[in-house]
Amino acid sequence: MLTSKFSVKRFIALTLILIITVGILSWKINQTRTKQMYRELAVQMAKSYFQMILVQRNWNADHGGVYIPVTEQTKPNKYLDDPLRNLKFSESLTLTKINPAYMTRLLSEKAKEYMSVQFHITSLNPINPGNTPDDWEQISLKLFEDTRQSSTWEVKSYKKSTYLRYMEPLLMEKECLKCHAKQGYKLGDIRGGISVNIPYAPFQEAIRKDTTDAAIQHILFAAILFSVIYIFGRKTLAGEQELSKYSSRLKTLAETDALTGVFNRRQILQSLMDLIHRSRAGGQPLSFIIMDLDGFKEVNDTFGHIVGDKVLAQFANLICQNVRSIDIVGRYGGDEFVVILPETTAKDAKFTAERIRSAVANRGFKGADTDIHLTASLGVATATHFQMGDKKLRDELLNKADTSLYTAKRKGKNMVESINAEG
């Protein structure tokens, strides 16, 4: 039962460890995928901004530039080499030409005011110094030129804020050659790129919320799963304990005599075989006593079998009181009882048998209304050399002890007779 209880507890403990391990791994995988999903979403958003700017630039280029009024906020582009850059209509109205690059710059400044989104048009060979690339943009531009990579991105912290930076190259198109041909560009060359910076804090907050929710879900699921397994384990343990009790009862019923509580004939024979094998291996003597009550038949005939059964139970108890804890007591059949004495010489076995005989002779067995005085005859057999096989020696011990018993009976009863089983 202890082994069963331990195994169930170990199963519950191992299951808990497994649930925690799998739960942590699952949550880690979920966390990684959540971060990846929101990064991809942020990259896609930045790409959408880039494409929106590109569409506006192409629209501007398709129309050869657009004119807007000159204001304090919108000055003429001094880097635009165009004789029609400024058109003056009156003292209060002058229009200036806005090319795609300048329009991108103006849109970026406006976006900062409303959206916290930043655009930056840049080039390794800028006409406008304001379009000079920073370190990351410069690395990206060189990467575009060397590998023809389509885009780059990174998550960068700057002044306690975190941004996702995204960049794609700008290819030289026919409309662009009007301004940039003098720089040596050809059609299809990478003339620069546009970087888009978007705040990453909302994505980080979404990641934190989703991973926290996932952690709570994993904990709840693990708790429910473990509770189910724990309840199942407890029920299994209770069932195994109950089964162990029934098994123990069955074992007791199979091994013991129901009337006296000592071993029955089958278990005595098995124990004798086991002890013969052990004594042979250890080189120790083994003794065997068989006994019965003298005149017991008259007890049954005079007082009845109920009283006879009580006498047998008292006889068994008396035997147990006069032997060692390592000795084995059993009922062989009827009023015959036996004692197996491991590591016991013939002399010591006879001494034990004499003690039992004396105890029986000096006490009365309680019957219905009166004490019943009986005596016992005992036969002793001892094995010392173990030259026979186990089964043969067992039978020899039984036969020699039985012979000794009947010798004691013939000599007048109430006595002990001893013999060497291998003699």
TrEMBL record:
The lineage of its organism: Bacteria, Bacillati, Bacillota, Clostridia, Neomoorellales. The chain crosses the membrane at residues 215-233. One of its GO terms (molecular function) is diguanylate cyclase activity. The keyword Iron-sulfur does not apply. Keywords: Membrane, Nucleotidyltransferase, Transferase, Transmembrane, Transmembrane helix. It comes from the Bacteria. This is Diguanylate cyclase. It is an enzyme of class 2 (transferase). Its EC number is 2.7.7.65. Residues 284-421 form the GGDEF domain. It holds the Pfam family GGDEF. The keyword Cytoplasm does not apply.
